[in-house]
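Notes from the 1:1 (GR / supervisor)

We went over the backlog. Supervisor wanted to see one worked example end to end before approving the batch request, so GR pasted a single chain during the call. The sequence is below; no edits were made to it. Supervisor asked that the structure be written out right there so they could see what the output format looks like.
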Amino acid sequence: MKTGIWGAGNIAHTHAEALKASGILIGAIVDVSEEKAKAFAEEFSIEKWGTDSSILLDDEITTVHVCTPPNLHYDMVMELLDHKKNVLCEKPLCFEDSQAEELARRAKECGVVCAINFNVRFHMACQKARKLVESEEFGRVNVIHGNYLQEFNAFPAPVDWRYNTVLAGRMRAVTEIGTHWLDIAQYISGRKVKALSANFGRFYPNRYVEDRIMYPDSGDGKRTETIEVCSEDAAAINLKFDNGAIGTVLLSEVSQGRINRITLEVTGEKKNLWWNSEDNNILNTAVKGSGVNSEIFGFGNGFMDTFRSLVDSFYDDVKRGCVSEAPVYPTFFEGRDIVKLCNAMLESADSDGKWVVVE
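Structure output shown during the call:
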C-alpha cells in the first residue's frame, strides 16, 4: 500500500510529516510546478514525482491526499474516485452544494474510504468532550457558542492564493477557519446547524501593496500598487440547531496576538463544558453550585499530533478496505454539510444577515 499527494504546498508538508510518523509510505507527489514536486520528493524520499496526475492513478497508489486550493478539489477528487482511490481531501471539500453532494454520494457508491482534514476534533480534550455530551448526565444541549481567532491576516498581511477568488472562492475567514469550528461544534455537541444569520466584516476592500505585503494606506504616497479584496476578514454568525439549541460564533483572521485560538462551550440541561486550543489539554466542566472542574490531560497531544491521529484513524479503515460503522474521522458527508453551511453564510451576509435555512 502506497499513498500519493496531490499538491506540494505548505499543507502538503504537514500531511507528509503525519504520514511519515504513522509509517505510511508515500509513493508519489504531483504538483503543477515540476520544481516543487522534485524538491518535495527529495525532502521526503519519494520515488515518483512530476506534474502529470496519471502518476497518482497507478495501481500501487491506493490512497491520495488532495492538498491543493479548493477550486481544484471537485475535478481532482472525481478523477480519483473514478479510479477507485481512497481520498483524504483538504477543506473545504469544494465550492458548490451540488458538487459536495455529488462527491459524497460518489464516494459511497465507489466503496472507498474518504475523509476531510478537520483535525481539531482529534485533540484529546475534544474527544472527551464528545463522550461527556453523549452521556445522560449532560442532558439536552441548549447553547453552543465559541470563536476562532487568528492574527495571520492583520496588517501588514501577505498576499497569497487565499485572496484570489478564482482559487479560494468568495470567502476566507469562513472557509479557512470557520470550517474547523463548525466541525467541532457539530461533532462534540451531536447537533446539526439548521438555520443561520451571518454578518461579514470586509474592512478594507481596497488595499495598498508593497513587495507582496498588504497595508491599509499608501504610506505617505510611497505605495502605489493596489489590490481589491472581496473576502471577509471576520464574520459574526447566529445559529439555530436541529434540537432547538441556539448558538453564536465569531470568526476573525485579524485579531492581533491570537495565533490560533479556537474556543467552544456547550451548555446542557445538567452540565456545562468549555475548551480552547491555547490550553488544548485542559477541559473544563461544571454543574450548578459545584464550582468548576478542570481535567488536565497530562500526556495530552498538540496540534501536529491531531494530524497524525486523523491519519491513523483514516488509514485504519483504508487497511480494513471499507468505512467503519461510526468513523472518528470526518467523512465526505460531513464535508458536504459544512460546504452547505458556508454557502448559507455567504447568502445571509449578502442579504444583510437574513436568516437562511440549511437543508
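Supervisor's comment: The chain has two domains: 2-119, 123-299+331-357.
Batch request approved.
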